């Protein structure tokens, strides 16, 4: 279907609505409906995913309602055309895509946002006059809206122009065209070239918010090992800092997840470098980042449980499902305790010291010059000035061989821990490849990562199930101690453990096939080809 | 896209009111909704204040000179559109008769709109004809408003037989009682002992002046009397029909 036409004219900062009404009255029957004062919140993920996909999404509610009444209108607009994609009346501001009642728009948002939350990325107050163009039957043929805007801490310089929106109704394009002609010809108004949100961000000085989107880091081709390590570490630390406010306020679970991934990646690098930092500094960072991993684990584990809770419930026979309700209460209560504890740790002097040391050592590179340029990545015996791509290549190769060795030694009888060890090696391997991905010429690196990911997913699912089963047993005991669980709940949890065990066995049986696919890369020399060093073309003079 | 046909052989039993109010409710929930007023009397178009006129008429649509998208009109309500009635629809039977695969033409015409709408409501003319056959074939659910009287139940039997002849699965047919007058003993008796050979919904629409007032206000009852008994009845009916549509 063709999108509906919509036009926006700038009225300047003086209300030009009278002139518009006077002009259109000569030709059309006009009906002025309600004047409204609205608060509009623009909603998007913290990294502007909807905006990047050409959608502008928001929430409008009347100003001056009672606090208990949060009824309002949720809308999605197409950024390029300004046309309305959807408009839904909801009882509260949606926080996640699952809060959208309409299946189609839930799907649309879910495909873009996943489990990321919608947060208010900008806001303004709108005074809106609405004017309908009617025919003799009182049928609406077009809608006009005159809007003036109020933004926080408004000044003469920091002000938005009033706007006139003209919205067409399907099947009445002629009327829309005529209104447009009249306004352009007689009132000489200019069409707005930018969306209101973009103008708002410019006026409020938040235009850079759109640019804080996480651009994938590319390592420069010629970086030596020390420079490369510092670049990667700085980038990871930056990701930690970007995610910290979100994990503290628990906007959604992904802030903590991304924070922890960055911590793990930093630990992975620290575990493989030598002589970039003085030994005592390296030991300090290794210990402290390990601590960061530990203090964030309990909250993350509970996040995972709560995210998967509905799935767990569905695993149970229908008659047992309601027996798990109290288990959810238990998890939520403990999540709150653990989250508070984690935030306290992040407020601690210990954490502040990590930040300040990092600033001093990595960002300002204060003491790095004191380190002799001997070698940077362990075992390679290469100087810190040797190109990072060459040093990393060797390291990647060795990790690859280690994965093959560890994987091949795993039999159906091997202990669960062996799979966990292999998983950790795969992670190190993956991180290293991703850091240096741009330096390698092989087209097949993407294919390799895909196959590796499949193996990692299998190992990850297996590890998650091991942890969940173990924890479930612990939770059951804890609930009994806290007097929260009755026999029914404990029985339901017992059935859940059985179900998870069944799944664990199934996932474990899939390992051999996943590993086989991965190890076959070796035979085809795909991997060796993938990490061939890329030499940029030299310009000929 | 789900197609809901509001159908009965009898006239004046609340087909159009049902199509208009249910479509309004669907759109109000955010579903992209279209009503096709197939009845040349144009009552649905009248309720939406839209002229019952389609350029090139039914012939234009059947010959492909016009597509349905060309003739869609937006109503005064968000996400709710209408294909108006046209006087030429009185000859739709004859026009369908001369086309190939005459019983699936309407389904074919609606196909290009599959991604544009979540629900399409067909307000069918009161007859047993090729138009009815087309709508019954095209629909995912056939909603049959029935007055709880002996003659109306007899008509319901005829519709069920007609569908059987067309090989239309019975699970597609959903009936509910319309224009129910609780003061009437017969109405009460029939509601308490509904027919068993067809699915009868629990919700029913009372005989209410608010429904008649739709013609005066030219709006769905949920717009001008949203707290009325009739409005609540349509809401309950829509909830049940939605379950039928999505859960079978």
Protein described:
The complex is a heterodimer of chains A (about 550) and B (about 250). In chain A, strand 6 and strand 7 (about 140-150) form a beta hairpin. In chain A, helix 6 (about 225-250) runs antiparallel to helix 7 and helix 13 (about 390-410) runs antiparallel to helix 14. Chain A has 17 helices and 9 strands. Chain A has a 9-stranded antiparallel sheet with strand order 5-4-3-2-6-7-8-1-9. Residues about 370-375, about 380 and about 535-540 of chain A have low confidence and may be disordered. Chain A is an alpha+beta fold. Chain B is an alpha/beta fold and about 250 residues long. Chain B has one domain: 3-Layer(aba) Sandwich (Rossmann fold), CATH 3.40.50.300. Chain B has 13 helices and 8 strands. Chain B has an 8-stranded mixed sheet with strand order 3-4-2-5-1-6-7-8, with helices on both faces. In chain B, strand 6 (about 140-145), helix 8 (about 150-165) and strand 7 (about 175-180) form a beta-alpha-beta unit. In chain B, helix 1 (about 15-30) crosses helix 13. The chains are: A alpha+beta (about 550), B alpha/beta (about 250).
Characteristics of this structure?
heterodimer; A: 541 residues; alpha+beta; Hypothetical Protein Pfu-838710-001; CHAD domain; 3 domains; 9-stranded antiparallel beta sheet; 17 helices; 9 strands; disordered C terminus; B: 248 residues; alpha/beta; Rossmann fold; 8-stranded mixed beta sheet; 13 helices; 17% strand
